[in-house]
Amino acid sequence: MIVNTKRFGPIEIMNDQVITFVRPIFGFEELSKYFVVQSEEDRRPFEFLQSIEDEDLTFIVTDPFAFFKNYEFQLDSHWIEALGVESEKDVQVMVVVTVRSAEDISCNLRAPIVLNRARNVAAQIVLDNGGYSTKISLSERKKGDDFDADSVKK
User: Fold this and answer.
1) Which of 34, 86, 151, 154 is packed most tightly, with the most Cβ within 10 A?
2) Angstrom distance (rounded) from CA 60 to CA 100
3) Residues in Cβ contact with 51 at an 8 Å cutoff, skipping those fewer than 6 apart
4) Residue 45: is it exposed, middle or buried by C-beta count within 10 angstroms (0-12/13-18/19+)?
5) Residue 11's Cα: distance from chain center in Å?
């Protein structure tokens, strides 16, 4: 399938790359189909979550554990069931990254995206415990590193 995107142009993806959100990303309730666009190897740990239904919508995402070693939470049984999680190894956690400027980059640890890789279903969930914020600075975490959020492998 060819997906037209504003940021990357047309991209060919396979059906097994489509991620269906059983609980949508907040503010985008009408959109449920996405795929991940991989960053170039030297630009990790950032990736892009591209909407299939809206070519203009792309989220920058990252693995929160790459920046916050102590980040942890328990996935409620409701979400385990809704996502069809059978094994912990199938679960991937991503957080949305906001780039306001090179000095002002933050991520949302309070509402991670939990993905069941085995079934390609995901949900953005709100953590009620842990005291995590929606705006945690990444700028201080990787100071001096040269990340370019627009470099991707097509």
Assistant:
1) 34
2) 12
3) 28, 31, 33, 34, 57, 58
4) middle
5) 18
From the list 65, 59, 69, 62, the residue with the least C-alpha distance to 46 is 62
Tokens of residue 141, six digits: 């975490």
| pTM, rounded to two decimals | 0.85
DSSP 29: T
pLDDT at 40: 65
Q: Are 34 and 47 in contact (CB under 8 A)?
A: no
**Average pLDDT of adjacent 10-residue blocks, the chain of 154 residues:** 94 96 95 89 80 97 93 93 94 95 91 97 91 84 43 40
Tell me if 94 sits within 8 A of 125, measured CB to CB.
no
Distance CA(62)–CA(60), nearest Å, equals 7
